[in-house]
Specification:
mainly alpha; single chain; 153 residues
């Protein structure tokens, strides 16, 4: 499967992982957020406090729970490389509004990736030619590897 200039395959694969709202352990989400905070360059003195972290995790679970932790990582990589259509400046404030803005832009980007993926699937030609065997309804192409007994046997 070929994709355009974006990380289409990575987005499709991440989309099919466990969603945040279905996680039994939040460690994958926390790990993704640690990566994101490092990626965007949030200074240590501006790191969220423990109570702010709890509020952010609650916001993510309730409002952004349909994403996967992997999608968070992809979204912020795309944002950092200026491939999302949004203002990515965080002003040293890792807030719910900032998360929502990035994930909203990622959602639009992901929708385009999914459309492209579906259109490519529809445009691909089948790998196997399907023909009916004259004596049965078996598909010749799916049984080529099976050796047939000679008709005189």
């Amino acid at each position: 499967m070929r994709f355009g200039t974006f990380k289409g395959k990575e987005i499709i694969l991440a989309h099919h992982k466990t969603r945040i709202c279905d996680l039994s352990d939040l460690e994958p989400l926390k790990q993704s957020l640690r990566y994101v905070i490092t990626l965007i360059g949030l200074k240590s003195e501006n790191m969220p406090s423990e109570s702010q972290k709890m509020v952010l995790l609650d916001f993510i679970q309730s409002e952004l729970g349909y994403f996967t932790p992997e999608e968070f990582t992809i979204a912020f990589k795309l944002a950092a490389s200026k491939k999302l259509n949004c203002d990515v400046e965080h002003f040293q404030n890792f807030s719910a509004a900032y998360l929502g803005r990035i994930m909203d832009a990622y959602s639009n980007y992901k929708a385009n990736a999914m459309r492209e993926y579906k259109s490519q699937l529809m445009m691909e030609e089948p790998d196997v030619e399907i023909t009916k065997d004259r004596k049965s309804t078996r598909l010749n192409s799916s049984h080529e590897w099976i050796s047939r007994m000679p008709s005189s046997a």
